[in-house]
């Protein structure tokens, strides 16, 4: 049955192993490079065989549309399994009726009115970050690795909005660094495990030093998220009026705690969702903002256009932005899209096929895995002329991009936090450009990407700042 796939182009295959041996021992950077090369070597539909399993690699919008709009084939692919000791089967990883039920419980947490009520937090957190950077400037540090400042910003906003917990005033603040480090380590360990097939069985992995390190990371991670849950539970008891006030009930963690009292979810269910949202809700936007500031620093003309746009909205006032101000920031919105085209925080997603379907004239059968290459799709020269060039104007015409531009995926399993993320990024980037001029430390810097849980690089992103 799978043999119709064997006719598709792909790397040469060995008996028994297929292509498995060519992925062994690769570093995360080598793996990234290898996956990018596949489409240039073999075209937009590539078949890789890992032992007896076909893994179809797709780079074409029409094929990607067929997969993403399929209402039954919503199960994630094998590599996501290595994340389950950490994220359980929370919204990102679950499938079938569990996924449907959870998505229904959590969707109200991203309602327009709820996002509107978060404006103050996005606003204040952006200001806090800007003030920290001004402080750094005053202390003589004008060249900064911006990543740690940004991830502090996105972590505190996800805690204060979705989780209703204020990081700065709580003792959990001390665990923040440990939490962020644990996510980096978890990513690295999962990637090591992926490229060494003998580490795949849990029984082997868990009993080796690498499995023990993994377990320690999970403990560090959970000690932070458990406290976030506890803090909110306490506050709810203390401030019952606030809970019945209506609006507050819509906060993500409150919805989960409400579902718990109705018997729809248990504590382990709450934990898997809190872990999922704390990670997906801060790391993705942090990486997009980091690459975004790097691109802005390299393109003074783009900064100036954003600044002009802000000036036309705010005049000379340094007042804080409202949601209707944000709606007017059309050029900034196009800039954010262009950032996500070049650096989509989730560069690659995967599905396991549960119901046979046709991909054009090719039958794809149950059990096949499919990888959708968002990063490579966004850099196709025929879809985005001069794809390496950073040009926000591409997104100004308002032309529909359909499945050629999918940083948030699409279809039933698209990103639930998409509007949250856009709003957060608009607040932060507009605040930055209103206060600072950014300069590159290396002109036209192209960081070396690596395969990880989100799009990452080990190269520090250093930017020179000056007050505007
Ligand atoms: C720039 C920021 C972001 C990008 C580029 C992004 C991208 C994505 C993508 C591509 C997916 C599909 C994953 C897959 O199919 O495996 C996804 C799913 C998801 N995202 Fe985001 N995301 C961002 C921000 C956020 C934020 C801020 C939150 C939460 C507040 C969030 C929560 C989630 C969740 C829970 C899912 C799983 C949804 C489901 O399967 O029902 N994301 N995201």
Structure report:
Helix 7 packs parallel to helix 19, helix 9 packs antiparallel against helix 11 and helix 14 packs parallel to helix 19. The strands form four sheets. This protein has a four-stranded mixed β-sheet with strand order 1-2-7-4. The protein contains 19 helices and eleven strands. It has one domain: Orthogonal Bundle (Cytochrome p450). The chain is α+β, with helices and mostly antiparallel strands and 468 residues long. Protoporphyrin IX containing FE binds next to helix 14 and helix 19.
Short description:
May be involved in the metabolism of insect hormones and in the breakdown of synthetic insecticides. With 468 residues, the chain is of the alpha+beta class. The protein has 19 helices and 11 strands.
Set out the fold topology.
Elements (H helix, E strand, L loop, with lengths): L2 H4 L21 H15 L2 E6 L2 E6 L2 H8 L15 H4 L8 H11 L5 H6 L1 H20 L4 E3 L1 H15 L14 H19 L7 H6 L1 H30 L1 H5 L7 H10 L5 H32 L1 H15 L8 H6 L1 H13 L5 E5 L4 E3 L2 E3 L4 E5 H4 L40 H18 E5 L8 E2 L5 E2 L4 E6 L1
Parallel strand pairs: 2-7
Antiparallel strand pairs: 1-2, 3-11, 4-7, 5-6, 8-11, 9-10
The chain binds protoporphyrin IX containing FE.
Protoporphyrin IX containing FE binds next to α14 and α19.
């Amino acid at each position: 049955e799978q043999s119709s796939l064997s006719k598709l182009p792909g790397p040469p295959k060995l008996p028994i192993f297929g292509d498995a041996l060519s992925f062994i021992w690769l570093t995360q950077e080598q793996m990234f490079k290898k996956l990018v090369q596949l489409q240039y070597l073999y075209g937009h539909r590539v078949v890789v065989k890992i032992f007896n399993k076909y893994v179809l690699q797709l780079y074409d919008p029409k094929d990607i549309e067929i997969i993403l709009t399929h209402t039954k084939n919503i199960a994630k692919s094998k590599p996501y399994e290595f994340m389950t000791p950490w994220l359980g089967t929370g919204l990102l990883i679950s499938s079938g009726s569990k996924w449907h039920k959870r998505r229904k419980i959590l969707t109200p947490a991203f309602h327009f009115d709820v996002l509107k009520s978060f404006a103050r937090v996005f606003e204040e957190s952006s200001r806090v970050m800007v003030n920290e950077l001004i402080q750094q400037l005053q202390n003589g540090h004008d060249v900064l690795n911006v990543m740690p400042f940004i991830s502090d910003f996105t972590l505190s906003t996800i805690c204060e909005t979705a989780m209703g917990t204020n990081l700065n005033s709580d003792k959990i603040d001390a665990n923040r660094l440990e939490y962020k480090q644990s996510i980096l380590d978890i990513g690295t360990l999962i990637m090591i495990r992926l490229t060494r097939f003998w580490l795949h069985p849990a029984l082997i992995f868990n009993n080796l030093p690498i499995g023990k390190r993994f377990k320690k990371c999970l403990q560090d991670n959970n000690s932070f998220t458990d406290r976030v849950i506890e803090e909110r539970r306490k506050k709810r008891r203390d401030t019952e009026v606030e809970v019945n006030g209506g609006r507050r009930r819509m906060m993500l963690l409150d919805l989960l705690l409400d579902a718990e009292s109705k018997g729809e979810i248990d504590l382990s269910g709450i934990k898997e969702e809190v872990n999922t949202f704390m990670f997906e809700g801060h790391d993705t936007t942090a990486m997009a903002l980091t690459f975004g500031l790097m691109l802005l620093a390299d393109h003074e003309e783009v900064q100036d256009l954003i600044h002009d746009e802000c000036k036309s909205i705010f005049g000379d006032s340094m007042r804080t932005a409202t949601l209707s101000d944000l709606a007017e920031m059309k050029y900034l919105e196009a800039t954010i899209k262009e950032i996500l085209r070049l650096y989509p925080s989730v560069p690659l997603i995967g599905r396991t096929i549960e119901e046979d379907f046709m991909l054009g004239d090719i039958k794809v059968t149950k059990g096949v895995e499919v990888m959708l290459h968002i990063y490579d799709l966004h850099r196709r020269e025929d879809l985005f002329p001069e794809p390496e060039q950073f040009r926000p104007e591409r997104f100004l015409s308002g032309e529909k991009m359909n499945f050629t531009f999918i940083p948030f995926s699409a279809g039933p399993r698209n990103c639930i936090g998409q509007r949250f993320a856009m709003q957060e990024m608009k607040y932060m980037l507009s605040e930055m450009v209103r206060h600072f001029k950014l300069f590159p430390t290396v002109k036209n810097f192209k960081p070396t990407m690596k395969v990880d849980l989100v799009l990452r690089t080990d190269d520090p992103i250093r930017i020179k700042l000056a007050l505007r």
